[in-house]
Amino acid sequence: MARPKSVLVGEVGPRDGLQIERDFIPTSTKIELIDGLIDAGVKEIEYSSFVSPRAVPQLADAAEVLAGLTRSKPVHLVALVPNAKGAERAVEAGVDELRVFVSSSESHNQKNVNRSVEDSLVGFENVLRIAHQSGTPVSGAIATSFGCPFEGDVPVEQVGRIAKRFADLGMVGVGLGDTTGMATPLLVAERCNHLKTVVPDLPITLHFHNTRGIGLANVMAGLDEGIDRYESSFAGLGGCPFAPGATGNICTEDLVFLLHELGIETGIDLEKLCAVARRVEDVVGRTLPGQVMKAGPRLQLSDMEQVATAVG
Amino acid sequence: MARPKSVLVGEVGPRDGLQIERDFIPTSTKIELIDGLIDAGVKEIEYSSFVSPRAVPQLADAAEVLAGLTRSKPVHLVALVPNAKGAERAVEAGVDELRVFVSSSESHNQKNVNRSVEDSLVGFENVLRIAHQSGTPVSGAIATSFGCPFEGDVPVEQVGRIAKRFADLGMVGVGLGDTTGMATPLLVAERCNHLKTVVPDLPITLHFHNTRGIGLANVMAGLDEGIDRYESSFAGLGGCPFAPGATGNICTEDLVFLLHELGIETGIDLEKLCAVARRVEDVVGRTLPGQVMKAGPRLQLSDMEQVATAVG
Question: What residues have CB less than 8 Å from A247, skipping those under 6 apart?
Answer without folding.
Answer: A209, A210, A211, A236, A239, A241, A289, B291
